[in-house]
Every structure is written in C-alpha cells, then in structure tokens.
Design brief:
The protein is an alpha+beta fold. The protein has 15 helices and 49 strands. The strands form eleven sheets. It has an eight-stranded parallel beta barrel with strand order 25-26-27-31-34-35-36-37.
C-alpha cells in the first residue's frame, strides 16, 4: 500500500504539529455519516508534484480508508488497485492548482462493511498515467481525519504551528451550532473571540514575543462541551555563533562540557529547530539552533544537555518552520513507512515510531552504543589488493526459504554461511549497499541515509559481528556504496525545491542518470563522502569500498553540457561526453581515497567506472582498482561460440590497464547469468547438457582465476545459478531471486563448485605465483579456439600451466607445455569428472569445454591422496576438514572425500 502521512490538525485533543493544508474539506469536519463530502486538493501545496497541471490532463485520486481493522496508521483498507482510472476517482478541475473530488457517502464510496469504523481518509493524487503524484511536502500520502459521530470541534491555524510576526487566523469549526470561544491559553479567562449559535468562529492574534503558546477552542452545545487545542511557536531570530573549535562538524559530536552537539548543513536556510524525544517531540523556541556561515555554506548547530550514554534518543530537524527532515548523518533511522514490516526476529527491540507525536518524517536515533562494539578479531591481515578474490553478495537473496524468491535473507543467514564461504576459498566478500535504503526489499542502490545501516537485514551489532567473524576467517568485507544518486528521503533532497536545491541537479549532466543526481560540485556533498567512508572504516571496521557508477562523479561542467539555472537542469547528456576521459573524476576519487587513507591506509578502493584505459590508469597511479566487465565474452565462451569469446581481458595488461589495477569478473549483479544464456542460447553440445554446461563454466573460472590480479564472483556463480537477472526490456530485474542452495545436491552443479574450490584455494595458497614480476603468458583470446587456450605462470623454478579445450563437442589432445619432465609436476585442478592422463609427449586428451592445471611439485595443490584420518589428525599441524561444498566438518566420515587444510597446505583426501 502507498505510504501514509499525517497532514492537518483536525482533532479533539492536543495536536503538537499542524502543517499547510494540501487538502481542505467541505464540510470542515468529516464524520463517517457525513453526506456529500468535497475534497479540495491544492496542487501548489505539499510536494507540488501536480502543480501547473491543467486539462486536458486528468487527475485521479488513489484513495482508501484507515479503519479500526487497520494494523497501523498506514494500513489502507478498501482502496482500488494502483492506477485505477474509474470515473469515481477522477477529480474536477476548478481553477489553477485547485481540483475537487466528490464523495457522496463514505461507506458506499469505499465499500465499507457495516460495523467497521473509519478513522481517516487517505489520498495520493496522480495523473492518469501515474507519471506525476501529489503528496505531502515530504513526499508522503495525505490523510484527513474522520471524527466520531456526535458533537465535535476542530481548530486550525492559517500559519500552521510555527508562526511569524504577522497576524494568525485561528478557525474553530463544529459539527452543529454551538457556543464557541477561542482562548490563547488554558489560564485565560478572556477569549480572543467568541460566538453563540454558530458552527464556525475565527480569531486573529499576532505573536509579537518569541515563545511557545497554546491555543484552545471550547465549544458547548446544550450539556456537551468539547475542546480542541494546538501548540503554536513563535521562533526568535536565529543567533550567529561559532561552532566549538571554529569548524562545523555535521552530525553529532561530544562537547567538552558534556553536551551532545548536533549540526546540520543547510545553505540558504534561515532557521532550524531540533525536535527530540527528550522534549516529548515538542517544537520549542529554546531549541532553535545557532548558525555559522563557514566557507560559503551555512551550518546550524545546537548543544543538548543531559543525554545519557547507551540510551536511545530520537530526533528530527524543523527547517524554516515548514519542512521536517531527519539527520543526513543519522547512525540509525526510524522509517515511518517500512519499519513496521521488519520482524522482531530480524531486529529485536527496534524503537517504535512515535506515531502519536510525529508523522511523515524519517527520524534519527542518537545512541552512543551505536558507535561501540567489542571486537574479537584484532589481528586480521588483508591480502594485497591485487590478490583479492571477492564474493559479491546480496544479503536479501543469499539465504531464506529454499526454492523461494521471498527476499528474506538476513545477517544471521549470512553468518550461518561463513564456513561455506571460507571453504570456498574467497578472501573477501562484497556486500551490495547496506546503507539505509528506500523500502525493505531492494538491491540497495536507492540510498537515503549514508551513515545508517539498513534494518531490513538486522541490527548494527550484527553488521559488526559479521565483519568480525569474516576477519576471524581471513576474509575482508568490502561495502558497495552509491555516491552518484540518492532516493527521495535524503534530508537534503527534502529541504529544497529541486530548482533551488544546492545539493542536487534537477537533471543529470551525464548520461547515467539514476534517481536523484547529486551535485558533486557542492563542498558539503564532498564532505559527506569523506565523512561517510571514514565512518564505515572506523566504526564498522569495513575493509574498503566499491564505488558505484563513478561515471557520474565528475564535476557538473565536465560533461560539455548546457546548464539551465532557472530549473537547475542540464541539457540532454551525451554518451560520448560522459564516456571520454574525465580528469575531474580522477581528482574526485583521489580526494575520497585520501580521506580513507587518513584513517586506514590499506583499505581497498574499487571503482565501477568502466571508462577509458587512460582514465583508469590515472586512477591506478593513486592505488585504485577498477571493475573490468568480461561478461559478454564469458557468456560467449560458456555458450560454445568462438565469436567474441576472448577472455584475455581478465588480465589487466591485455586490457591496456596497469598490472593489478582491475577487478575482473564473468558475472556481477548487473550482468546476465552465464548458465541462463547456456540454457537459452547455447550451441549444440552445450544447450540441454548440464554436465557440459557446468564444465564450460569451470573453464571460464579457470581462465579468470589463473590470470594475476583481483577477480570477483557473483553470488551462486560458483555452482551455476541460472535464473535470469534481466527484465524483458533488458534492464536489471531487481526483484527477489530464488534461494538455490539445493543446486549443490546435483552432481554437475556440485562439480562446478568443486572446480571453484580447487581454483580459489590454488590462488590463495600460491599467492607468490600471481605477483607482479612473475613471467606470465596468456593465450585465451578468440583466436585461441581450435588450437586450445593456455596460461603459463613462471616464478623461478615454480610453474603453473593451464590448458583449456574451448571446443563445444570435440575432445582435443593438447600439449600442457611442460618445461621439465612431467614427473616434476602434479595436477592442481581439472574439470569435474575429468582425470587427465599425460602422454609420453606431454599431451592430455581434454574433453570438450574442459580444463586442467598442472604445477611444479613445490606448489601447494589439491591432491587426491588416500590418508588415514587418524594419521592426519595426529600430524604436527591440526587438520581442518571441508566437504566438497566447502562446509567445515567436525568429524569426517571414513570413505568420503574432503578438502583438508593443514597450515598453508591444502589437499583433497579420501579418509580411510
């Protein structure tokens, strides 16, 4: 259901907040039995999403009701499907930005059964094609209270609850004629205005002195007296005052006097009030924040006293008396729309959203405990950046109900699979974005808050525990992070009209526009990035970042585009101008890297730039790596087609890149699954043959992992995931995917997994063979098809030799390329089901799509050697056993095959 927000103060009890009215009603008070209701929508109020819309464009209401059966304040009942353009939902155009909807009878109009009590009417207004929506100022749904039957009174203010020095008109309405009086406060005996036998009364008052006031309406009809009240605050002029130390620090910091100092960057704003749970969410004049203009930007700050360590304090900012926003630097966020769907088993003791005090604003949680954790692993050693073997992981789809696509993965689920990942042999996992994103079901690239972990997967301590446990198993944790765009609930997006927003572009100057495009020229945006990376490196012990869509991180004017200042938009961007060398992107990423190095000099730095070699080689000079997308060629090879199948780009120098400067991959979250394309489009000998398909996928892995440099595996690639990742249009299908651990029960898919285990352990246990300076020969191009493909790595007397038969249906006798007697080599890895036999001439008969890797005897390999379990466990080094699915086994079963690690030695053993 659409999100629901509170809009107007029509109530019979104290209302702490009243906002400008996006809708008004006739009559002023609505009850369930009120006939002929007219809802007037003011399109120039709220988010102004339909401002300026006129006929012939039609406007419709998506509307429902909140009832006594609703489970929450956003649980709509009796609403049509989204996009229903039935005549009853069509609004009538009245005048510029004014539209009306007629509701003859609530029960009949909505189909409310007898006995159900309606509490509110809920609305989102939209165009017929749903391309534009009218909501509240904060982008939420609109609701109107439906009061109980009988005598009722309401009270509204012409300026809302934050007033200035101009006269304010208060209006009291009743359901039928009564004596009405409006008082300034509960102790006043003289009303501002009074009337007898009326249904509406107005009173005007000018608040000349800053402070907090209460206005009360008292209505009496016969023996029935009802009251309505609202708090009104007149703020004092903001005070200029220097931030302690002189340099404003956004977010919160501890003051030397025991206070907690909150600070918000808000250029071009006049006043900000911090509103907190410590004041029962009351907007108080005393909480108006100081301001400081620093380096051309305005900051607002305020010390709050008495906040205790380890306790939750919830707050938001009221900007210029009209806009309520969370804190861009919030460490944890209460989402008024989506938190209710998070199970207590996923996030125990999540503070409840204070719906009786606040609506329609993401709230920040301040708690010193959010920055604390008792780290267990304190001696983790990162591998060199060029030795990274990364497992790209989407928490949402990694675990859950087997065979289902429910998107129910959690941090606990990932924790339960860490032994698997360790056994697989990767030395890093890369998490798709975990920063607070829109909704609970997402890839995470729609970030709203950059310093808060999303709660849909678990608690902050569980994120830290995951990183701690990964470190204990020798695995780094890299965070995917999105600095190109944000979703619409980021406070800086909420605080301004887009045409006047200093933080965002109204349209992107580059060709990769997604959601809301950050203005990278804004120095507060740059500060946010620096603070963000330092926060995750220091507080969460993250090991580095993969930066999404770096193509969009250049200066605005670096794309040779035309700027239109009246609308804060850019002309139609050019692909060519976006993709060409861009020095400002190089400079910006270096600035971010410098910020990281201030707190963690060895943290990993990975760009998704996919730009020119010149640009990426300049980034490499700064110690950065760049994604290298080899998906198309990998799919071609996997399907059995020679055309376009060259895989030499897995090796950076053959892609015109600096040695060790790429993280190459055959699959990623953005690319199609190889196994899917095999099943749909594979050539004869591949399509429909699972064993042949998995064998070819193993050979793709061998050609990738045998190339020096960092590489990445996308979740479930290692056992042949085959569910498409694309929509029919070709775009990414971001919906939940099936949990498919049962694939490991199939011998062919398990065989592919075994190949990955062997290859990854080969890499990890022989890192000296993949360093810069090792003699490297790569022959995996398109031309290396019929004659076979080869990789040779030579480091002194040590050698690794790989041979691949790319043919889809023909066994080939291929020379391994031994430089010594074959007895001086051992088999390091081979395709599942393939046991090579070396001929006298040093050739082996390689099955179609298969591979084999030999290494000199001094290298650590995975060997099929029968070993007595008792002898193994009694050796000088303790043995750790893993089954062929990479899961650690405490008590190995005699007769079964296991991967056994003793120190740096890895063997594949049959336990006797």
């Amino acid at each position: 259901m659409k999100h629901l927000y509170s809009l107007i103060a029509i109530c019979a009890a104290f209302t702490p907040w009243a906002a400008a009215q996006v809708v008004t009603t006739t009559p002023a008070i609505i009850q369930q039995n009120t006939p002929n209701i007219v809802i007037t929508y003011h399109a120039d109020q709220g988010n102004k999403g339909l401002m300026g819309v006129k006929p012939p464009t039609k406007v419709y209401a998506h509307t429902g009701v909140i009832t006594n059966l609703s489970t929450s304040g956003s649980d709509w009942q009796y609403a049509p499907s989204w996009g229903n353009n039935s005549a009853k939902y069509e609004l009538t155009y009245v005048d510029t930005n004014t539209w009306q909807l007629s509701i003859p009878d609530i029960d009949t109009y909505y189909g409310v059964p007898s006995g159900v009590t309606v509490k509110q009417l809920a609305f989102v207004f939209r165009t017929a094609d749903c391309s534009k929506e009218g909501k509240t100022e904060s982008g939420g749904d609109i609701f109107v209270d439906v009061l109980p039957a009988g005598f009722q009174v309401s009270l509204t203010s012409s300026q809302g609850s934050i007033v200035d020095g101009n006269p304010v008109t208060f209006t009291a309405n009743t359901t039928y004629a009564a004596s009405i009086a409006i008082y300034l406060d509960s102790t006043s005996s003289t009303p501002l205005s009074s009337g007898t036998d009326v249904t509406s009364l107005e009173a005007s008052y000018t608040f000349s002195t800053p402070g907090d006031y209460e206005v009360i309406a008292v209505a009496t009809a016969g023996n029935d007296t009802q009251t309505a009240s609202m708090r009104v605050t007149r703020l004092a002029e903001p005070i200029a005052k220097e931030f302690p130390g002189g340099v404003p620090k956004m977010g919160y910091t501890k003051g030397d006097d025991g206070s907690t100092i909150f600070c918000l960057g808000a250029p071009n704003k006049q006043q900000v009030v911090i509103v907190g749970s410590w004041d029962n969410y009351e907007v108080l004049a005393e909480n108006s924040m100081y301001y400081q203009d620093y380096n051309g930007y305005r900051y607002f700050w305020k010390p709050i006293y008495g906040l205790q360590d380890g306790q939750d304090y919830i707050y938001y900012y009221l900007v210029d008396g009209t806009t309520r926003v969370g804190d861009p630097y919030a460490r944890l966020v209460l989402d008024p729309y989506n938190d209710k769907w998070i199970s207590s088993s996923v996030f125990p003791n999540l503070p409840a959203y204070p719906v009786d005090k606040v609506q329609n604003v993401p709230l920040a949680i301040y708690n010193t405990a959010l920055e604390e954790y008792d780290w267990k692993c304190t001696d983790f050693h990162r591998v060199d950046q060029s030795d990274l073997l990364i497992y790209e992981l989407l928490i949402r789809d990694f675990t859950g109900t087997e065979g289902a696509a429910n998107g129910e993965g959690t941090l606990k689920g990932v924790m339960g699979k860490l032994d698997y990942l360790q056994g697989l042999g990767v030395n890093a996992i890369e998490l798709l974005p975990i920063m607070e994103f829109n909704g609970n079901n997402s890839w995470g690239y729609n970030t709203n808050f950059y310093f808060a972990p999303d709660k849909a997967y678990g608690t902050p301590d569980e994120y830290k525990a995951l990183i701690d446990e990964c470190h204990a198993r020798g695995m780094a944790v890299i965070l995917d992070i999105v600095f190109n765009q944000s979703d619409g609930l980021h406070p800086w997006y909420q605080m301004y009209e887009i045409a006047k927003n200093p933080f965002y572009n109204g349209s992107a100057p580059h060709a990769y526009s997604v959601l809301n495009d950050w203005n990278q020229d804004n120095q507060l945006v740059a500060q946010q990035w620096a603070d963000c990376v330092q926060y995750w490196l220091t507080v969460y012990n993250a090991d580095g970042f993969r930066f999404d869509l770096v193509k969009g991180l250049g200066n605005n004017n670096s794309y040779d585009n035309t700027y239109y200042p009246a609308t804060n938009t850019w002309g139609t961007p050019s692909d060519a101008n976006t993709n060409k060398y861009n020095a400002t992107r190089v400079a910006r990423m270096k600035v971010i890297h410098d910020a990281m190095r201030e707190v963690d000099p060895t943290a990993y730095f990975i760009n998704e730039n996919l730009a020119t070699a010149e640009e990426e080689n300049d980034m490499a000079k700064d110690g950065e790596t760049n994604w290298a997308n080899v998906n198309y060629a990998s799919c071609q090879f996997a399907m059995g087609f020679s055309s376009g199948s060259g895989l030499e780009r897995f090796y950076a120098p053959l892609d015109s890149r600096t040695w060790g400067s790429t993280v190459s991959y055959a699959e990623s979250h953005d690319e199609e699954r190889m196994a899917y394309k095999q099943a749909e489009f594979g050539t004869t000998g591949v399509k429909g043959d699972t064993q042949a398909s998995m064998r070819r996928l193993g050979s793709v892995a061998a050609q990738m992992l045998m190339c020096p440099g960092a590489h990445m595996i996308w979740q479930f690639q290692e056992f042949g995931a085959d569910q498409t990742t694309k929509e029919s249009s070709g775009g990414n299908d971001t919906s939940p995917k099936k949990v498919i651990w049962s694939y490991l029960d199939d011998p062919d898919h398990a065989g592919l997994h075994q190949s990955y285990v062997e290859l990854l352990h080969l890499r990890g246990d022989n890192a000296q063979m993949f360093k810069e300076g090792v003699t490297t020969t790569i022959k995996t191009g398109q031309s290396n098809w019929a004659a076979g493909r080869f990789i040779t790595l030579s480091n002194g007397t040590s050698e690794l030799l790989m041979v691949v038969n790319p043919m889809p249906s023909t066994v080939r006798n291929l020379s391994v390329g031994f430089t010594k007697d074959p007895s001086q080599y051992k088999l390091m890895s081979a395709s599942y089901g393939f046991t090579p036999e070396v001929s006298e001439t040093g050739t082996i008969a390689v099955p179609a799509g298969g591979y084999a890797i030999y290494g000199t005897l001094d290298l650590s390999g995975v060997e099929s050697v029968p070993v007595d379990a008792t002898t193994a466990s009694g050796s000088d080094l303790p043995a750790t056993y893993y089954n062929l699915q990479g899961i650690q086994v405490a008590n190995p079963t005699p007769g079964a095959i296991y991967i056994v690690k003793r120190g740096s030695q890895v063997t594949k053993e049959i336990i006797l």
